[in-house]
Amino acid sequence: MIGVVSVIVVLGSFDGFHKGHQALFEVARDASDRMDMLWGVMTFVPHPQIVLGNGSFVPLFTDSERDFIASFLNIPDFIKIPFSDVKDLNPKDFIEELGSRYKARGIVVGENFKFGKHRSGDVEFLKSYLTKKGWFFAAIPPFKIDGSVVSSSLVRQLVKKGYMQQTEAMLGYPYFIIAPVTEGDHRGRILGFPTANLPASELKLLPPKGVYATAVLAHGKWWSGALNIGYNPTFERGDEIRIEVHLDQFEGDLYGEMIAVLLLAQIREEKKFESAEGLVAQMKDDVERIREICRPWFYRREGLLFSLKECWKSYEYRLKVTNYNRISR
Ligand SMILES: Cc1cc2nc3c(=O)[nH]c(=O)nc-3n(C[C@H](O)[C@H](O)[C@H](O)COP(=O)(O)O)c2cc1C
Ligand SMILES: Nc1ncnc2c1ncn2[C@@H]1O[C@H](COP(=O)(O)OP(=O)(O)OP(=O)(O)O)[C@@H](O)[C@H]1O
């Protein structure tokens, strides 16, 4: 990062970037313009809860998905520091490290931010210590939607319940999966609904089993997509979770291609059908329903879709395929 120029740093764990985080970015962006400094987001890898938690933490976004949102949100510098380098530092040493190693001269956090050994550093400490040092400092009050404080934990709870519209409201964009298309059992084509299969990752939180209306970016275009997450009980395929999406009106080959799937709404649960014909009749209805959901959504969020597509084009995403499933440590 950043050479000799001073930087205003937005600090936190950042499992993805929700609207509360975006409020912090606005403050940092504005201050950096006024004070002729750079700004950037600084986070810890792996996510502190992976290190400190009880092993059950699954993040919303993979590393490369988070890089994509950082680029989409025009974050000029996204700095990832090994959590092990800083987790035992006391608050004062942590700040000194940011100053000497990263040229930080300003900090923006939320009012509830805690850091350093035993989480002993807080906003009170930052305010007095940074004022003495002459750094810029801002602590932002909790950003709320409908009375609830927006947080990554809350977004994780919403995703786990399959509440995709509420998730979109908190993030400012729909929850999404970016992954390379892999081979399925090639039965979809025979059923009349070919699907792009996506690998599951233990580093990616999935919503519950079921069928979802999605917007899919593939072959440089947006498509309405019918996504199924589940075990395909009709065909008794065992206990390996499957993630597969049928792109409405798409004809062609997607194997190996990286695609982005935005989850807009859950439309039903996955079911066991008595016959393949029963499933096919249901899938026809699913696709109709999904068209009805996608049409107005695409219209309403045309600007978002355009920006995401532009970002995708300029982003060297294909190069990141090898990083899929990996977390930086
Ligand atoms: C929109 C949609 C809905 C689906 N719903 C179910 C379902 O309710 N029950 C089920 O067993 N499989 C369901 N599936 C999964 C199909 O069984 C699966 O797509 C098919 O077996 C083809 O799999 P393949 O791509 O691995 O060949 C659904 C798939 C899609 C695209
Ligand atoms: N709703 C919010 N309003 C203002 N600041 C916030 C909000 N949520 C988080 N922040 C701030 O954004 C930075 C990064 O947040 P972080 O990802 O650590 O918290 P979080 O979203 O509350 O996540 P979690 O729920 O996993 O603790 C921190 O400085 C934090 O205080």
From TrEMBL:
<protein>
    <recommendedName>
        <fullName>Riboflavin biosynthesis protein</fullName>
        <ecNumber>2.7.1.26</ecNumber>
        <ecNumber>2.7.7.2</ecNumber>
    </recommendedName>
</protein>
<keyword id="KW-0418">Kinase</keyword>
<keyword id="KW-0808">Transferase</keyword>
<keyword id="KW-0285">Flavoprotein</keyword>
<dbReference type="GO" id="GO:0006747">
    <property type="term" value="P:FAD biosynthetic process"/>
</dbReference>
<dbReference type="GO" id="GO:0009231">
    <property type="term" value="P:riboflavin biosynthetic process"/>
</dbReference>
<dbReference type="GO" id="GO:0009398">
    <property type="term" value="P:FMN biosynthetic process"/>
</dbReference>
<keyword id="KW-0547">Nucleotide-binding</keyword>
<dbReference type="Pfam" id="PF01687">
    <property type="entry name" value="Flavokinase"/>
</dbReference>
<dbReference type="GO" id="GO:0008531">
    <property type="term" value="F:riboflavin kinase activity"/>
</dbReference>
<comment type="pathway">
    <text>Cofactor biosynthesis; FMN biosynthesis; FMN from riboflavin (ATP route): step 1/1.</text>
</comment>
<dbReference type="Pfam" id="PF06574">
    <property type="entry name" value="FAD_syn"/>
</dbReference>
<comment type="pathway">
    <text>Cofactor biosynthesis; FAD biosynthesis; FAD from FMN: step 1/1.</text>
</comment>
<keyword id="KW-0274">FAD</keyword>
<feature type="domain" description="Riboflavin kinase">
    <location>
        <begin position="170"/>
        <end position="295"/>
    </location>
</feature>
<keyword id="KW-0288">FMN</keyword>
<dbReference type="GO" id="GO:0005524">
    <property type="term" value="F:ATP binding"/>
</dbReference>
<dbReference type="InterPro" id="IPR023465">
    <property type="entry name" value="Riboflavin_kinase_dom_sf"/>
</dbReference>
<dbReference type="InterPro" id="IPR015865">
    <property type="entry name" value="Riboflavin_kinase_bac/euk"/>
</dbReference>
<keyword id="KW-0067">ATP-binding</keyword>
<dbReference type="InterPro" id="IPR002606">
    <property type="entry name" value="Riboflavin_kinase_bac"/>
</dbReference>
<dbReference type="InterPro" id="IPR015864">
    <property type="entry name" value="FAD_synthase"/>
</dbReference>
<comment type="similarity">
    <text>Belongs to the ribF family.</text>
</comment>
<dbReference type="InterPro" id="IPR023468">
    <property type="entry name" value="Riboflavin_kinase"/>
</dbReference>
<dbReference type="GO" id="GO:0003919">
    <property type="term" value="F:FMN adenylyltransferase activity"/>
</dbReference>
<dbReference type="InterPro" id="IPR014729">
    <property type="entry name" value="Rossmann-like_a/b/a_fold"/>
</dbReference>
<keyword id="KW-0548">Nucleotidyltransferase</keyword>
<keyword id="KW-0511">Multifunctional enzyme</keyword>
